[in-house]
Amino acid sequence: MDHSEIVFGILGNAFHCPVMGEFEYLENALITVDTAGRIQAVLRPEEYQSSGIVQALEGQGRLQRLTASQYLIPGLIDLHNHAPQWPQMGKGLDLPLYDWLSNYTFPLEAKYQDLEFARQVYGDLVQSTLSSGTTSAVYFSSLHLEPSLVLAETCLDKGQRAFVGKVCMDDPDQCPDYYRQSAQQSLYETETFNHAVAGMKGNQGLVSSVVTPRFIPSCTEGLLKELGQFATANDCYVQTHCSESDWARDYSQQKYGETDISVYERTGLLGRKTLLAHSIFLTNQDILIIKDRGAGIAHCPLSNMCFANAAMTTRELLDQGVHCGLGSDVAASVTPSMLRSCFDAVTHSRVREEGTSTHRPAGERGESNTRISLVESFWMATAGGGQSLDQNIGLFKAGFGFDAVVVDAAVPDCDLTIWPGMDSPADILEKIISTTSRHNVTRVWVQGRQVIDKKTAG
Ligand code: GUN
Ligand code: FE
Q1: Which residue blocks in 69-182 are alpha helix, DSSP H?
Q2: How many domains does the chain have?
Q3: CATH number for the domain including 414?
Q4: How far is the CA of 298 from the centre of ligand 2 (A)?
Q5: DSSP 8-state class, residue 102
Q6: Keywords of this protein's UniProt record, alphabetized (predicted)?
Q7: How confident is the model over 163-172, as pLDDT tens digits?
Q8: Mean model confidence pLDDT for the chain
């Protein structure tokens, strides 16, 4: 075997989900990484034992062995995060969406004109998301061009795979005067931002720009059309909020007599590289259109619990094969942890469940078959996110970017406990999804580069 392309190898126990709804436990596997940061091979003991590769890599100091308490999982993918809202996290989540945006979000986002403030907050946010195991993040920035570039540069500098959008808002009916741009300025700055991100020194595809109309109430139809034309002509990523609450859904109906999806489709904003946050109130026709275009949905379970006044039809979307991943929706959440989003996606799916009391007739309360499993939620935060982004990430598979996280159960004072002889691989994965805290995340790699290394007792 030719080992010259291999930069390093990791030997240990790993979990991933090559098929939606199923997990694979790779016990004592050897994962090798090439000079481009891609996975070169994933080998089981019977495949590497007689080859001498482990000894060769170890002899050259290029082998990392995981301990028995450490598990490797694919890097977590956050499909929806509002970077400037990081200082807002934990505030006002008992308010309706419109009040929350007006009272907290818009005044805070307006502060990012101050570049020094942007540097401080974005440095802290990107460090925290990486430290929680988020190797890829799709960010809304603020309205401002230069501070949005600060966010893109921070991601590149710290080594996070990122998709960053300068937010567009021009409708005077819904956007405050202090936090709004003209359609012309919004489009010009979107074009400039797109160009600048592609040209950032050292950016070899790690950071991409995203065309970002905030949501239908914040944009005039003219701006939506201009952004749609630009995104189509330049094959850009697009992100926006879609049918996220009663209020937002009704707004589109009243203004256009259409669903959000119909408006995005008509204005050229819906394609393979479009990410739709929330998407709670979809019609059957909407779902067919999303599927046909290959757009992705960012399910944000905790945020939906706060603002949607309804539950997401995750089970149905997954069953229909719609591209679907998870988003933290910081700051409409209380943590950037994508494993917490996994757990919340499961509980969210269960609130729709039919009551099963023998005293109540079937169908009286709730619906049947709404539940998703912990493994399905983990698929969404890894492989499903990669599929939504149309990127080769989220799996341990040759040719995929080596984005990976070590979860260590041996760190002191934590809830993740694995009991020898009592926990099967399925139990261990469920515990990792449900109880991992940031302290358990001890090492993180993005595209083969180690970006987090916490020295631990383990
Ligand atoms: N809809 C429009 N803007 C926002 C935002 O910043 N957060 C959430 N959760 N929903 C939105
Ligand atoms: Fe959001």
Answers
A1: 97-100, 106-109, 115-131, 145-158
A2: 2
A3: 2.30.40.10
A4: 9
A5: I
A6: Hydrolase, Metal-binding, Zinc
A7: 999 999 999 9
A8: 96
